[in-house]
Amino acid sequence: MPSPEQIAKNHWYRNDDLPGVSGPEREIIGYGERPPRIRWDGGAKVAINIVVNYEEGSEKTFAMGDHMNDGMYELPFNVDDQRDLAKESMYEYGSRAGVWRLLRIFDRCQVPATFFAAAVALERNPEVARKLNERGDEVVGHGYRWIDHYEYSREEEKALINLAMDSFQKTLGRQPSGWYCREMSVNTRELLVEDGRFLYDSDYYGDDLPHWTFINGKSHLIVPYSLVTNDCRYIMGTGFAAASDFVEMASRTLDQLLDDGDDCGRMMSIGLHPRITGNPARANGLAEFIRYAQSKKDAVFMRRDAIARKFIEQVPRPATPADRPNR
């Protein structure tokens, strides 16, 4: 047996989190066995949210002075110490062709979408901003640029959030009510709550339903996201080799949520990138899944802000942590 002194030097024996650690508290238990019985628009059991991560033109590049080339593209190698024109052009495919292919599918299928948009990406392609306004799509703040927020100080991150919101006001004539940055910091959620302009954030992957949390005594809504039914799996790690893989994963996800062993409604996130799913074969798979989902009477496509508001109607904002459901 290790001595008390030996144990005190290690952390492997702990069964709780250290006090005073920066950032939000971990919430392990969640809703437990009995989540709230949620129903969405038209009484549907599953709300499907299509998310387009619109980042092209805001990623890290030598051309923008970042002294590096960003990742998440088709080829598994990098060019160091200079511009990678091949990689840059793959990003440009998303803004030149891919985003418009996705929007044509959404128009044809008459489905709403949520755009996780980096502000600079919309600044550099104002026609996309115009189209989103024309369609009435939701824009969620995806940062001023597509950069990791954990790399910045609290003051710098606050400035980045304000820069992004000012930019959205100029390009869209409106500001987002939701936020999802590339990689949040331990300060992100506190800054959003302090700011006061945000209905929710989506920097969370731990549930199939929105939930209330508390930040410095104030209730705050989390609308979770997913990297499972997400097209990053075409190009990262073990994932989708073909469009049929995406269709099967998305269809099976929907089937399970529609009959998940209880009477609780849930949400489903579909994550897309114009430079990835905007390519023809993958876009064809997306259209196939949308048609499949539209054949299900208990599924409905909704914007993320609409999901947030529909949830709040049924699970009102709690005044104290003790007022949260099933906590």
UniProtKB/TrEMBL annotation:
Where does the NodB homology domain start and stop, copy by copy? 85-302
Q: What's the short name of a Pfam family annotated to this entry?
A: Polysacc_deac_1
* Gene Ontology terms, MF aspect: hydrolase activity, acting on carbon-nitrogen (but not peptide) bonds
Chain ranges passing through the membrane: none
- Tell me the leader sequence span: none
PROSITE patterns linked: NODB
Its Gene Ontology biological processes?
carbohydrate metabolic process
Q: Which PANTHER family match?
A: POLYSACCHARIDE DEACETYLASE-RELATED
Name listed for the protein in its UniProt record: Polysaccharide deacetylase family protein
Q: Which organism is it from?
A: Ottowia cancrivicina
